[in-house]
Amino acid sequence: MRRKGVNYSKFGYIFTFPFVLAFLIFSLYPILYTAVIGFTDMQGLIPKPIHIMDNPFQNFKDLLFDNVSFRKSLINTGLLWIVNFIPQIVLALLLTAWFTNKRLNIKGQGAFKVLLYMPNIITAGTIAVLFSTLFAYPMGPINSIFDMLGWSDAPIFFLQDKTTARGIVAFIQFWMWYGNTMIILVAGVMGINPALFESAAIDGANGFQTFFRITLPSLRTILLFTLITSMIGGLTMFDIPQLFLAGGPDDSTLTTSMFIYGQAFKGSYMYNRAAAASMIMFVIAAILSGLVFYLMRDRDAGRMKKAEKNFKKSAKAAAVREV
Amino acid sequence: MDHNYKNGTVTRKINKTIIYIVCIFLAVLSILPFWIMFVNATRSTAEIQSGLSLLPSTHMMSNLRVLLDKSFDPIQGFLNSFIISSSATILTVYFSSLAAYGLVTYDWKLRKPFFTFILCVMMIPSQASAIGFYQFMYKIHWTNSFLPLILPAIAAPAVVFFMRQYLLATLSIEIVEAARVDGSGEFKTFNRIILPLMMPAVATQAIFAFVANWNNLFMPLILLTQKEKYTMPVMVSLLRGDIYKTEFGSIYMGLALTALPLFVVYFLLSRYIIAGVALGGVKE
């Protein structure tokens, strides 16, 4: 194919080699190692030789059936993700619809985008500590605001209540990420063929119809991307809950990542249990990603392919018959 | 007819007013916490406890003194974070561009499987391998070293993916062939011709890699136990500790110091960052 008969294909391997090497050493090996540790009795600060337990699935069984804290952490992680993702995607879609509507022609979009995205850039740890200070009891900025607006007579101890604490963590996540989601969606809408909108306008579609019949279906790939990245991010949620309340009150904001960190690195050195928990998390991530891909798969494309195949088959059959 | 038309514009005006109010409210919501943070960094603890103020006071220096007296060393933290983030960023963008170029330009047998592999790797949460990674680093005595925070940056699947999309859209194979005719080696072609062509993509990905590394808390928290190695986010976690319990002024000061560099970078580069988020998200 290439002129002069020089074969360059080996450079494909050479150029991707550093990536593969770094992946093997720093990702694949640690993942396999983690998986193995999950089956061992590795505990304590002093390293011991690896010893697979007589009952290899003991750690997994203990975690899933006997460990209240772990189950709670899974539920919390799911809950915190759902409670922050639904308002996040709804608000992002709403803002997208407003910002991309040419008839509305919203001024100062650039400034709004810059400001709404801003929380995303600041270190999550800083934001977590900031919010815990803002909600301080008995006197903190939020309590002052409530007092000024006459919403409360006595200072409220926000961070003692489980629901409020969870709500605030979910709110911080929402607040940090909706700007990001909005920018991605706006870019997605800009990428849609303008002719589609024009023909919808000619056909007399109103704003709602255009949005639900044209904008949303065209955004499917981007929504899939947002959903998956947000899901993986939600599953590994760590910085905010860790530095906000360190999992409290009463484990109500304990996430799976924090559970893993707590088991292995906060003085108890239960590496085997932490490793087993990591593997459970890994499997959940894989299942969820697979599920989302399956649900959001391009059904039309699949049907087209099938139809094409059938057509070819019958054509072939016809050809054979003719001969 | 005329009446109808008027009605339409009136509704649109009302709608637009509502939209502007919502947007302004959201913008204020984005700014307010940080504003309170910067203002409170200049107020004494007594002032902070007496109520909210949106105007700065005069206790900046005393807050700073209290903060620095208690093992909080923002300059060291800044330096550590900077070394780690900039090295990791350089590795990420260079090797990802290289891999993406290899993926786009050459016709090799494993090209498609490699691409699928990258897509799968993107879905792996980094915490899933943390225990094994820590044990591994412990064994080769790399804890309290910056290397385990820098070297893994060579394999950044999401960046390879992005660079591939960019190259597919912009690279014409004629350039590479012309370089070959002129006697340029493959590596030289990449370094001298392709990499400069990729600069717009490299710049946006560099910003994101830098911010992500700068903000990373989990890995440094696990790996770094010596105070003089702490990065900025790990230092923030100190502010939650008991030593600052009643020193609200200096807590805000510490937070403001960790956020300030990012604010400066953000407002200088916000246009590119926004464009980068947009580009990075729209993957087909």
Automatic annotation (TrEMBL), chain A:
Pfam families xrefs: BPD_transp_1
Main location: membrane
UniProt keywords, alphabetically: Cell membrane, Membrane, Transmembrane, Transmembrane helix, Transport
Membrane topology of the entry: Multi-pass membrane protein
A single GO BP: transmembrane transport
Secretion signal, residue range per the UniProt entry: none
ABC transmembrane type-1 domain residues: 74-292
Bilayer-crossing regions: 12-32, 79-99, 111-137, 175-197, 218-238, 274-296
Highest taxon listed in the record's lineage: Bacteria
Subcellular compartments: Cell membrane
One GO cellular component term: plasma membrane
InterPro entries membership: ABC_transporter_permease, MetI-like, MetI-like_sf
Family: Belongs to the binding-protein-dependent transport system permease family.
Protein name, UniProt field: ABC transporter permease
Native species: Paenibacillus graminis
